[in-house]
Amino acid sequence: MAGNKPKFSEGEKVLCFHGPLMYEAKCLKVQLKDKVHQYFIHYSGWKKSWDEWVPESRVLKHNDTNLQKQKDLKKQHELQAKAKRMSAKIGRETPDKKDIDSEGSRASTPLEKTETPLLKGQRSQKRAAAPTPAKSVKATPVPPKKNKVDTYVETEEEYLAKVEIKIRIPDELKSWLVDDWDLVTRQRKLTNLPAKLTVEKILDDYVKSKVNGKGTSNAKDSIVQECVAGIKDYFNTTLGTQLLYKFERLQYSDVIKENPDKKPTDIYGVYHLLRLFTKLGGYLAYTPLDERMVQLLQNNVNDLLR
Fold this sequence. Notes:
This protein is of the alpha+beta class. The chain is built from nine helices and five strands. A hairpin with a 2-residue loop joins strand 1 (13-18) and strand 2 (21-33).
């Protein structure tokens, strides 16, 4: 139940939930109905036909903290769409539990520490530090859909309480990540691009090492292929906004312009792929995959990292 004074005033610029996403808006009117404040909202950039009365629980202050939350929700929404497509494909052919639990042969392609000039001459040491996540760039909101409105609004407690799915990074690879962080952020050194051993090549070689190689496809092979396709999608989607340090962003902008026909998986190599794996568990926590599908993806990622 709201107090006598509304949190937002007429003419104030705000952020407003519409379904699972937030949009920039303006508060046009305020009313007290059934002892609860309501606000007549106009979504910035959209026709007046989208204007609507909303409860106070759907409105947030227009500040840096909530703008960052808006970006995060937008990114999670994009990843969920990709996960739904992957889940639909994987769900057509699901192996028995013994196939899920069984461990196949290890990947034939090692993650060569010397393939990138960035780490030449460096000695890996076990350290506890981890790369600092890069700030994401501003995302363009998707138009609110008036039909089939999701009336459920995630609370801040639910948003912060998402359970992260664990991806096991071997100790040796953790030390690579620490050296990578040190060389880029402290020593301000950049890796040569395109990488000699790209993410695309690493993942394709992993698939080749896992499929039966007899020219026929089975359920387990199909799952490996779909999981790897999902990892590639995550990498291409998140690299520019989530996986780069500030010092690398200019290089990223230049190399994308120089290679307009290539995806990030065709340009970047093993160290940026490792950075993805440090964040992948958090991304999976926001996907609509069921427990069995998440386990399949986890098993393949952990197998790849060995």
